[in-house]
Amino acid sequence: MAAANQVFAYEGTDKAGRKVKSEYTATNLNVAKADLRKQGIKVSKISKKGGFSLSSLGAKITPGDIALFTRQLATMMKAGVPLVQSFEIVADGMDNPMMKDMILKIRDEVSSGNSFAAAIKTQPDYFDDLFCNLVEAGENSGALETMLDRLATYKEKTEALKAKIKSAMNYPIAVLVVAGTVSGILLVKVVPQFEEIFAGFGAELPEFTQLVVNMSNWMQDWWFVIIASIAAMLYAYKYAHKRSVAIQDGQERIMLKLPVIGDILDKSCVARFARTLSTTFAAGVPLVDALESVSGAAGNIVYKTAILQIKEDVSSGGQLNVSMKQADVFPNMVIQMVAIGEESGALDGMLDKAATYYEEMVDNMVEGLTSLMEPIIMAFLGVVIGGLIIAMYLPIFSMGDAIGGGGGH
């Protein structure tokens, strides 16, 4: 079993004699010292950081970190800074110690004579085939800074799109969780207090109040079973989803058929297809190879299957727009724009316009969904929480009416 990585804080001087103060991730102190020595850093002070430090908690490398790294590297290279020095400058500005460590490892690979593409291929968890292929194409064509700029734009736009979709999905789920939690607390803790008061009335409770009291009694008896069942179901789903490709594919197919959310996901897949194909094709990647990369970035099994079929058709000599039409998943507008791009020889430009159009459409749809859901969610919370409160006060109102009616005689 591999030893767990630890974060070490160190101080020292680099090859140029400048003072450096940073962090390094390694399996133990000796490995950290040896790796830093290989990088030309003379360590004067090094110590293990606490296991629960803020830096170690936030040490996971995210797609956002990769997008930021790509943008900063593109900026450095456009300014004429050499590649190896660019790595050092970008690494120095990173707050995430794992990200900083990875950039320095890439720098060491490049310094030892490997290409940038070969260096990032040693980090497959963070750089996919598409990223590696585009960097390789940029290096081969002598336009790495331009390619990095395109890659940075691509990563930023795709991550922004993912964030918007996630926001649209998480908002209603968060509200349902809050509503369920508040309702559970009211039923388990508050309703029993009212029940004791009602017992002293000696009168029959209204049907709605009796229903809520029965629910409260049931929740008090079985709350631990309910929580355990929900936790077990979530764990089982997560485990099965992670292990089974069939479950992942089935979920992706179902998601596309959901009302409103399905339409947003559908448009986002089209936007991702157009953006990825535009970026790869503009980089000089042959169309068939570009479609292979695009299928991996499609984000949904329906589109991945369709794109792979399109790739087969195109490799057999078919036109892209005809193959897309036969796939029967792409909107007519995108197919028409691709047809115009193929005829005019400006396919990457037309795909870029299509991507921008559908990205803006997804933005508007997410904003519209949020605006639509806010009053619905407020009404839902009002009905659930307000209903419980009304049920508790109904007997008091009924008793007041009885007293008022009795006083009339």
Description:
With 409 residues, the chain is mainly alpha-helical. The protein is 75% helix and 6% strand. The chain contains 16 helices and three strands. The chain has helices at residues 29-38, 54-57, 63-78, 83-92, 97-111, 116-120, 129-141, 144-199, 207-243, 245-257, 261-282, 287-296, 301-315, 320-327, 332-344, 347-407; strands at residues 6-13, 19-26, 42-48. A three-stranded antiparallel beta sheet has the order 2-1-3. A hairpin with a 5-residue loop joins strand 1 and strand 2 (19-26). Helix 3 (63-78) packs antiparallel against helix 8 (144-199) and helix 8 runs antiparallel to helix 11.
Structure in a nutshell:
The protein is mostly helical and 409 residues long. Helix content is 75%, strand content 6%. It starts with 5 loop residues before the first strand and ends with a helix.
Structure characteristics:
single chain; disordered C terminus
Number of strands: 3
Rounded mean pLDDT is 82
The Rg value, from CA coordinates, equals 30 Å
Which percent band covers the strand fraction?
Answer: 5-15%
Q: Percent of residues in helical segments? A: over 70%
Across the major sheet, the strand order is: 2-1-3
Q: Sum up the overall morphology in one term.
A: flat
Order of helices and strands: EEHEHHHHHHHHHHHHHHH
Report the structural category: mainly alpha
Annotation field: number of helices:
16
Stretches where pLDDT is under 50 for at least 5 consecutive residues are: 51-58, 402-409
For the biggest sheet, the summary is: 3 strands, antiparallel
Distance between the termini: 86 Å
